Amino acid sequence: MQQRMDDLDMTQVELARRMNEVIEEVFGSPGKVSVRTVHNLMHGKTSWPHTKIRIALESVLGRTAEELGFEPRCKTRSGDEQEGSAVQRRTFGTTAVGLALAATAARPAAARTRIGSGDVQRLHTKFAEIIAKDHRQGGSLSIENQALGLAGEALGLLQRGSCSQRIQNAIYATAASFTSSAMWAATDGRRFDAAQRHFDRASSLAGMSGDQAIQFRIWSHAGSLYRHLARPVDALAANDAARRLTLVRRDPLFGALGHARHAAIHGVHGDLAAIRRCMGQAEDAFDRAASDEPRPVWMRAFFDQAELHSLATAAYLAAQDYATAEAHAHRSLVYLRPNLTRSRAITTARLARAQLGQGDLGPAVATATSIPGSSMDHPRVAGMLNSFTRALSEVAPRSPETRQWNEFTNARRTP
Q1: What is the pTM of this model?
Q2: For residue 246, how far is the Cα from the chain centroid?
Q3: Which end of the chain is more exposed for a tag (fewer CB within 10 A), N or C?
Q4: 177-207 pLDDT tens trace
Q5: Rounded to an integer, what distance in angstroms lies between the CA atom of residue 87 and that of residue 89?
């Protein structure tokens, strides 16, 4: 356990906090894990954690209790008791929230010796739920932890049974998918150190799977991570790794996403010629992509014309071509699907900044105030609005629009 905490650069205080968040998310009531609880776990005063504690611990640290050094209670007075303990370990030994979701489905060991396509499909269903939750909430620590827990559940299948090479590859791909969702949740929530750790693990799992679609997603996410960290050279290299995959040549839609994200990275450099070139390639690839091609759920869930224009908005906004950024933002909002609430808030915040960049103070403030209050608390949206506040104060510190915006933001902070 100590080694795992060191690997994650995690303190006892942080571990206790994150465990409480997992308990509240899974069981619906606040967790009561304290630093003393963690201290007792680390120093052997608790030989086998209580179920809730164990689920939370495995979720946050991404390892089973046994891997963290704990030994299950196993009475030796009878074979029946030993078998009961073994079943209990199989039921609760998988990681995190995935365990809580699947605990009622526990079966004797003999029924779990062969892993098949049904197991993979159940994992895919849970992955679809993670994707849907991410688009509703975005960036939350609970999504990050739940995704990690489900990755652990997927890998736990391989430890408890046998399967064909095809099924093994599919399970590694699913575990990589869950881990990449944790990576994106951390990036979206601006927890960049955690995102980097998840990237390392996700890329390793994707390599073992041989699945190019998930490899594309992970490298493309890495490009976005480095763009947010203002490391454009690394961002371009990571996104190039995604664009070089043969999958991109087979399916133009992946090429469209790769080119559009490349344009967004060039925006950090302010390279308008490169942005126009990449967006032209993205639009051409998007037009060539077949609409009925089978694609992963994560791709189908978000990438469309709205996202294409959203990435163009980000690129031109970073390069300070405010008029072009505004035009793309309006198009993105027209095409945007109603369920993508986080995307709508981000694009609206970018639109407000683009309007402000052109000196349109009234429309800019009206656009910014139209973002729902719940979306304003999203880490990326909050960061954009803080930037908007600074820019507005610099451009027109004594204007009625600045006073209106400041009153609006102050009212939001007042309990």
Answers
A1: 0.70
A2: 25
A3: C
A4: 999 999 999 998 889 999 999 999 999 999 9
A5: 5
